TrEMBL record:
Keywords: Transferase. InterPro entries: Acyl_CoA_acyltransferase, GNAT_dom, Ribosomal_N-acetyltransferase. This is GNAT family N-acetyltransferase. It holds the Pfam family Acetyltransf_3. Residues 16-189 form the N-acetyltransferase domain. One of its GO terms (molecular function) is protein N-terminal-serine acetyltransferase activity. One of its GO terms (cellular component) is cytoplasm. It comes from Microbispora cellulosiformans.
Length: 213
């Protein structure tokens, strides 16, 4: 699509492909949301969208991508990829930036279908967007956060070299819960073999960056 080149942007790793979703991809991602993305009773998200019935979870999964595409601007963007593994859509990995041309800082968030967890996919898909951010877009920092009772997410961050960056308190359901902020500086990032970026150059202005000469 000439006027929205993001649909051709992909990041590939030894096992995964990250891409903006087609409508069929969104259907598959919605199925993952309906199946479940965490154990019952837990809540790893500040907005408890997984408390909704399966059909509502599926519908909201589709809608968030439409909202992000419609709201995208070079000064404020959220790029949510679907994650394909062995030909199946297994989850989503987001990378977001505000005033990125000035801050050179991105944030990340993700979820993975429950039955695809504990396979190393979560670490690899986060590493993929870090490769896009640092090697592709020239980011200087990447940030993330997780509730302190979400050790899986924090373990992924620490495995990838993030350092603790303070505690915040947020509402979660009908109570308060602590979130651990984490930050990864470019100099602490380690590039991985077999990670490749495809179709980035036409997208650079949409990320607030000048086109390559």
């Amino acid at each position: 699509m000439r006027h929205w080149p993001l649909f051709a942007l992909r990041v590939t790793t030894p096992r995964l492909e990250l891409r903006l979703p087609t409508l069929d991809d969104l259907d598959a991602l919605a199925d993952r949301a309906a199946e479940g993305v965490h154990e019952p009773g837990g809540m790893p998200f500040g907005v408890p969208w997984t408390d909704a019935p399966p059909d509502e979870r599926a519908r909201s999964t589709v809608q968030i991508h439409f909202r992000q595409w419609g709201a995208w601007s070079p000064d404020d963007w959220s790029c949510s990829f679907v994650v394909a593994w062995e030909g199946r859509i297994v989850g989503t990995q987001e990378m977001a930036g505000r005033d990125f041309a000035y801050t050179r800082e991105i944030s990340t968030g993700s979820w993975l279908g429950l039955r695809f967890q504990d396979k190393g996919i979560g670490t690899e898909m986060r590493a993929a967007v870090l490769h896009l951010a640092f090697a592709g877009l020239g980011a200087r920092h990447a940030t993330s956060s997780a509730f302190v009772d979400n050790p899986r997410s924090l373990a992924v961050s620490r495995k990838l070299g993030y350092r603790d960056d303070g505690i915040e308190v947020h509402r979660r359901r009908d109570g308060a819960a602590q979130q651990q902020r984490v930050r990864l500086a470019r100099e602490d990032w380690t590039a991985r073999a077999g990670f490749e970026i495809h179709g980035l150059d036409p997208c650079l202005p949409l990320f607030g960056l000048p086109p390559r000469a």
